[in-house]
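Lab notes, practical 5.
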Amino acid sequence: MSKNIELLYDSYIIKELKRLNNVHITKKMISDKRTHLLHYRKMKAINFDFNDNRKYCWRCKKLYLNKLENFAKVISRKTYDGLESNCKKCKKEKRKIDYDKHKDNYVKKACEWQRENKNKRSLICKKNYKKYKDCPKHNLMKKNIKIKYHKTEKGKKQIFIDGLRGLLRHGLNVYGNGKKMTSKKYGINYESCYKKLYNEAKKMGYTIQELRNMKFHIDHIIPTSLYNFKTHNDIKNCFNPLNLRWLPAKENIIKGNRIRPQDLEIIKTLPISIYPKGFDINNYKEK
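Output from the prediction step:
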């Protein structure tokens, strides 16, 4: 750079520094500002050169060698090169910060849209399922999301409820006519079942997950074989929270569908309303 241009730069820099700072201006401040302006001018020239494949990101202050790979295309507005001013990485970070800041509004709007556009949503889900069905990257991402979800309190609760659903399906297949409906139609409340067994596990000094790891099963005090799985009322009574308890797996397998003498004593404490139809505890004989 020639001396005349350097002096012009310096006079402009001094004016700017005086305007922005009330402190004493040093030579270092002038040189730093000069290098900054020269760098800005150089990067701007690169960005506006259509023949140059490089592009500078003003956010992360990094010069990328391939602009088409690292910068997204602009759809909503016009730009000189048809690309965003910030790189994809910076844009992603900015979106994340913005989402964390206004998370409640985004969730609210998404829920409203899903309620109003149920048909559109189902079509999008089907389209995406077909698109990413055989994609290993997408399947791995789904698996990781599932693992993370199952580590949360909500996820652990869901695993427990899925286990109860499995017991209901087994009962309907073995003792019923095979017809399956939602738990609400049978009158089963999984939430109250979870609360009862969660409190029972807490009294034992463990969590549900710890009892699962110790190979404890969810056992029906009055066996499922005594209930008529063709009637809704009997299915509801079978899955009443009072009829459920924790039992070691080995003990549960040995017990099977029998009522042991110690179980009879527990059954006597249960309300008669949850007994199977035609069940008489006083005249009960093991088959």
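Observations recorded by the TA: The mean pLDDT is 86. The CA atoms of residues 57 and 85 lie 6 Å apart.
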